[in-house]
Amino acid sequence: MDRLKNTVRPYAWGSTTAIPHLLGVEPTGEPQAEMWMGAHPGAPSRTARGPLTEVIDAAPERELGDRTVAKFGPRLPFLLKILAAGAPLSLQVHPDLHQAREGYEDEERRGIPVDAGHRNYKDANHKPELICALTEFDGLCGFRDPSQAADLLAGLDIDSLKPYVDLLHAHPEEAALREVLTAVLSADPGQMAETVHETAAACERLGGAYAPYADIAHHYPGDPGVIAAMLLNHVRLQPGEALFLGAGVPHAYLNGLGVEIMANSDNVLRCGLTPKHVDIPELLRIVRFEAGDPGVLRPEASPDGEEVYETPIDEFRLSRYVLPEGSAAHDLTRATPQILLCTAGSVQAGEHPLRPGASVFVPAGEKAQVSGAGTVFRATVVA
Question: Is residue 270 annotated as part of the catalytic site, yes or no?
């Protein structure tokens, strides 16, 4: 197996302290948002054999296994991250596989450069993702019931929000959510900015259920995404709990440290809370206007101690082992590629001692044992 050296991405929303604290190093004072583990071309992990992208390209069947290559092609299908949100991320959705292929081919035909700011589809893949909390973790996930969203907006007692309240009460669920999101994102920017300023002040005054939106508005003053965010479920995960974000589900991470895994894609349609391009017609085509419970996941334990976060897709499978002091070694050998990540304690993965934040890549079929006292996350695929 290969010990990984991983890149930390300094996005502006990142926490200045969470990743350094996990790694046991001094903060630099700069935001440290995500540590990437995998073979994404934007920031591949490095090994003693070279960048992981090159290692896999040189012998995909050996590194990934025949079944993985047959199912997903000659590339690692997932990207594993440690994510540290110190401020809200953009409100966003991801396309399904058909939409991604269709959108990518359309933008290719129109000659839009892949790095253009107004390009929606960087690749032809979908981007389901799972976030598992390492600390208390706040996020937004999926639409509230329209009547609940109406009550939340009505409680602010702001005249410019009353038409949205009426729409949420007057239509069937899908139509209500679609009409209100469309109206919010299409409103006159100056008038919407004034509405958001009033909303921020009211949320600050009322606190309680409104407190998350006061904080969002503090980071994104005047942004229509503040109102859009109030249509969504607010979720607070406890350590070990997770959320699965499927295609078309609007979501945003607000604050906290977690382990994130996703299909290897960069396709994002933004709804707000961002200075970046928002393509309203394409966004409305992708969003699933369905209200419901966000579905907090808790791991399902197996007899060998593996705790699995069950999801409906095959590009990734995330599980963890919580190893008590003096426990026997666990055999993790598997016919698919793996990344093992330590997040607590001190563990041994093969010949590699791992402290929090350290990780290894295990080629398909290579013997893998873990022991020690700590927590190890295991990322692999279903093939």
Answer: yes
